[in-house]
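Morning!

This is the sequence you dropped in the shared folder:
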Amino acid sequence: MTKTEPTAEPADPKVLLSHHLKKLKLPTVLAEYEKQARQCAEAGVDHPRYLLRLVELELIERQRKMVERRVRAAKFPATKELASFDFKALPSLNKVLVTELARGEFITRRENIIALGPSGTGKTHLAIGLGLAACQRGMTVGFVTAASLVNQLTEARDEKRLLRLQSALAKFQLLIIDELGYVPLSQTGAELLFEVFSQRYERGSTLVTSNLPFEDWTSVFGSERLTGALLDRLTHHVHILEMNGDSYRLKQSKARRSA
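The structure's back. Tokens below.
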């Protein structure tokens, strides 16, 4: 009689499940399946609904991480939600339009936004809020001040990597250029910035904030011809947000002094 070899013990199903879920890159299912199984058993939930719970948890977590990645990539200077914006302090601002823009359909249509108003009226807050709303809807966003962008473009040109930077800027579905008009541009800087606007024309949305009315933009770009060509592209498909009012920062400073 031949001797029978002992059969190998089956691997622990928990170990195999953990291995397979890691391979499939389902970390939330791995972390939640036991807890959800207990809760579903206690509540008498059937297997399809148990699986549905796990899949929904995985999707929610992936969505959260995706938004986090897009917010980090945008390089916002701060996190400012539209919900915290004080619309009552700025009666000139069209709240209904801002709420509509937060849905992100203007980005799908490749339209632009220009927020105009004096310093301290919340233009940057509004721009960040709209940018965050776009990130939450899965869109790619970039944030940069006009002065910083011109410096980056100039350095890239000098280091012979301008095309790479221009290509990266063109890929953003929404590019926010903050504080246009605070610093006059050199001829080279103005031309490089104009090229960014030109490359995005009808290809991507651009949001610009400025403390200057359009008729004063020539003082920034130094050329009526260049300014006219820029405004022609930027205002072709545009939503203009009038933000005329007293400075938030000045109000807060006065309130602190009074206190």
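Headline: The radius of gyration is 26 Å.

More detail when I'm at my desk.
O.
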